[in-house]
Amino acid sequence: MKNLHKIIAVKHPGVLLLIFLVTVLSKHAFSQNPFIRNQFTADPTARVFGDRVYVYPSHDILAQPGKGRVGWFCMEDYHVFSSANLTDWTDHGMIVSQTKVPWANPTGYSMWAPDCIERNGKYYFYFPTLPKDTTLYGRSFGIGVAVSDNPAGPFIPEPEPIKGVKGIDPNIFIDKDGQAYLYWSQGNIYVAKLKDNMKELASEVVTIPNLPTKGLKEGPFVFERNGIYYLTYPHVENKTERLEYAIGDNPMGPFKVTGVIMDESPTGCWTNHHSIIQYKKQWYLFYHHNDYSPKFDKARSVRLDSLSFNADGTIQKVIPTLRGAGVTNARTEIQIDRYSKIDERASIAFLDTADTFKGWKTQFREPGAWVQYNTVDFGSQPIKKVIFKMLAEQDGTIEIRTGSTTGPLLSTVIIRKTNQWMIVGSDDIKKTSGVQNLFMVLKEGKALEIDWIRFE
Ligand code: FUB
C-alpha cells in the first residue's frame, strides 16, 4: 500500500499539478517481462487448462555453502502460476519439493525443467531430479511423476521414477488419437510412448535422429498444428543456447531441422528453455532470461512473447521483448520500463541494485527522449487524471501521447526538480478510450526518472 505523507497542489498556467510525496513504494502489478516477479523462475512449461494458462517453471534459488553447488543451478522445489489474461499471475505456491519425493535425493537441489499434462481429469506433473539411491539408478537424473486432481495441486509424487528413463527436461505430448508420448534429453533427444496410466513406458526408447550433432541440445517441447508435428528444442549452435525446431508427420519422428525460433541471448544468458501454446486464438512462446540476475545466468526469470506462423507452417522468429504480451489496464501502475520501443536518449535501470526484484525505472536523459508502451486499455469510462512516480534533476515538462511521439496529446505535465521519489500528476487531460499505444516524451528538463504511470 502507498503511504502518502503530504499532498501539494501547485498552480501552473493552464495546468493543475498535483504532487504527492511518497516514502513507501507501492507493489508492482505482475505483468510484462519477466512476468513472474516474486522469485527466480526458469524453463517455463505453459499449459492451457480450462480457461486459464498454467505455467510450471523450475524454481531457481541461490546456492550457498552446504546448500547446493555454489555457482551452479540450484532448485529444491516447484511452484505453479496461473493467469486468465497473461498479465495478472497467481502464485499457487509450492507443489512438489525434493524432501517429499520418496525416491529423490532430499539435498540434491536439482529439480530441473518440469512439465504437466491433463488426462481424464487428472493432472500429471513430470520432473527430473537426482535420485537418492545411486546404486539403483546411477548418478543420472531420473524422471518422476506426481499426480493431482487439480492443475494447481496438491500433487502426490509416485514412489519410484519412470523405469527405463534417465535424463532431464521431460515433455509430454498427447496426440489426437489419445496416445501419450514422453520426450526427454540427455545429450540426445529421446521419445517413447507412455501407457494410459501415464507412469510407465509403453514402447522402446527411440533416439530422435537427424538433429544437430554438434553442440548441446536439450529441453524438447512437442506440439501439433494443422497435422504438422513440431519438435522444438534449445541448441548451442554457436556460443549459447538458441531455440530451434524440426518438423515431421509422426510424433516419434523422424523430424527435419527447419529453423530458429529465437536467437541466442545477446547478453550471454547461457540457457534458454521454452514452451509454445495457443490461448484465445493467439500463439505464445514462453522462455527465460536472467532479467533479475544479469551477472549470474543460473538465476533466471520467465518471459512470454507472441508467436506467429507463416502460411506454410514455418515459425516466424520471435524477437524477445520486455513488453511481452497481453493488455495493460490504464488504471493500473504501467511499468513503462517494460517498453515496446525506446529512444536512444532514454534507458532503463534497476530501482535498487541490492534488491533487483523491486524492478526497474525509465531514465529520460535529455529533451526529446521518449518511451513507447503498447496495448494499454483505457476502457470506456472517461479518464480524469494521470499520475506517475518520478525523480528529476531539473524542472521540465513531459508529454503523454497516444499513437506516436507526435500523436494525440493526452496531457502535458510539469515536472519539478526533486531529490526524492514523488508522485506527480495532472487532471488537465484529454479524452481517450479503448486500447492505445502510450508514449511519454520529455520536452524540457533532463535526468528525469519514472517508475510507473497510472490513469484514474
Ligand atoms: O534449469 C536447468 C536446466 O537448464 C534445464 O533442465 C535445461 O533445459 C536448462 O534450461
Explain what you see.
This protein is mainly β. It folds into two domains: about 150 residues, Galactose-binding domain-like (Jelly Rolls, Sandwich); about 270 residues, Glycosyl hydrolase domain, family 43 (Tachylectin-2, Chain A), CATH 2.115.10. Helices cover about 0% and strands about 45% of the residues. The protein has one helix and 32 strands. A seven-stranded antiparallel β-sheet has the order 1-2-30-27-32-25-24, with no helix packed on it. Strands 22, 23, 26, 28, 29 and 31 form a six-stranded mixed β-sheet that branches. The protein is elongated. The site of beta-L-arabinofuranose has 12 residues, from strand 3 and strand 11.
Q: Which compounds are bound in this model?
A: beta-L-arabinofuranose
State which percent range the strand residues make up. Answer: over 45%
| Multimeric status of the protein | single chain
Instruction: Enumerate the spans where pLDDT stays under 50 for 5 or more consecutive residues.
Output: 1-30
Mean pLDDT: 93
CATH topology type of the largest domain: Tachylectin-2, Chain A
Quick one: overall form?
elongated
- In CATH, the architecture of the largest domain is 5 Propeller
The overall strand count is 32
Largest sheet: 7 strands, antiparallel
Give the full name of the CATH homologous superfamily of the largest domain: Glycosyl hydrolase domain, family 43
Structural class: mainly beta
Q: CATH first level of the largest domain: which class?
A: Mainly Beta
Q: Please give the order of strands in the largest beta sheet.
A: 1-2-30-27-32-25-24
Distance between the termini: 17 Å
How many separate helices?
A: 1
